[in-house]
Write a structure and sequence with these properties.
Layout (H helix, E strand, L loop, with lengths): L8 E2 L17 E2 L18 H6 L11 H13 L1 E5 L4 E6 L3 H8 L10 E7 L5 E9 L2 H6 L10 E5 L4 H14 L5 E4 L4 E7 L3 H6 L9 H4 L4 E5 L6 E5 L8 E7 H15 L4 E4 L1 H11 L14 H4 L14 H10 L3 E8 L12 E4 L2 E5 L2 E4 L6 E8 L8 H5 L3 E5 L2 E8 L9
Parallel strand pairs: 3-13
Antiparallel strand pairs: 1-2, 3-9, 4-7, 4-8, 5-6, 6-7, 9-12, 10-11, 11-12, 14-18, 14-20, 15-16, 15-19, 17-18, 19-20
Helix pairs in contact: 2-9
Length: 424
Amino acid sequence: AVCVLCVCCVCAVCVCAVCSYIVVTACVQVLPYDYYGEYGNTAHDNYTYFDAVKQDYKFGLPDCFETIMAECQACRTAGALFNMSYFGKFLLTGKDARKAADWLFSNNVGLEGKVSYTCMLNKDGGTESDLTVATVPPDVQCALPDLAGGDDSFYIACGGAVATYVQQHIQTVLLDEQFDAQLVDVSSQLGMLSLQGPISQKVLQSCTDIDLSQPDCTTYGRHFLMDLGDGATKVWALRMSYVGEFGYELHIPVDSLQSVYRRVMAAGKHRGLRNAGYRAIDFLSAEQGYHHWHSDLRTTDTPHEAGLGFLCARNKSYLGKTVMEEQRRSGTTRQRICLVMDDSCELVLHGNEAILCNGKVVSYVRRAGVSQASRQWLAFGYIDKAAGEKVTDASLASKTFEIEHMGTRTPAQAYCRSPFFKQA
């Protein structure tokens, strides 16, 4: 698949989040997917893009590693623009939409003017997904007809790789509970650009007449409708971040996506804004200690075990609440921890490496990434504990942790959450 920004290439000024790859030295053509010559398709010959991707086929650092780190640094010190259009985007509408949302999502959603980060759980309390949900106000429905769903309509955004899974889970729950509600897939109608970093507000302010210094535009988790000064291009801006910086998610009709992209990049170029890809997002979010569903957050992991208990509301009923309340009272027998390797980033973690405590294997790496600040590897995994036992940074520091990589054990410091975390 080729995103609407890329058209036919991936280069220094054109990023494809679907392909998650950037080549900064040349323009690389992206051809239609050939299914490796199977299913009656003809495999591409002399495919430059495929040859470029092969740079990652190694156990060591990829050839594009310094490019990724430069993107991370730009995001932390200036600004980065990510094309997140591949995200799954859904509209939950209908007579019972609010009832369905309350039951589906563990957190309180549907608060006016607010975007809610939440989990969806199964009956055993396992996490089926983590995603964001916002009610769609009348002005947004008027400006963006694809989001016109009536008084009680909920906009759901989730990772593109899990969009089909999320869609099926929601539809199954709607059917099981017999809610009079519909889930509409609007992924193809809306693009999404994520503008992140210290300069993001100044960059976006230069693109619009709206005063972005007002609380509704600066407070994390708020959303607002804006135009780009031409009176025609409407953008729904959500004050959200998956990389730990002040920034915005811009949800845009696909017909306007390229023009918005060009305008934002032109406004930010002299300030240091640069394109960045999904590999940079992986590293930046890991540095923050954020979760990545399917790796360090799965259907067998509960929010309390993963450190996401704050996403479980106590003032309403939702699917999986019985288990969550029991864990709140009695505690859990597992806990997600963060390990920072003592060595430099030359030892590459790919996941599934053994985690040792006091010389014994106690777990395995579920997710890993490099800290832009220290260039050390961070790894996340779950360790067993007694129910009710309180795990702290001090108790973890009293033990010796190691990560085994390619037969070599490397010391690591353990924390309850990433020591690099900062409020976005």
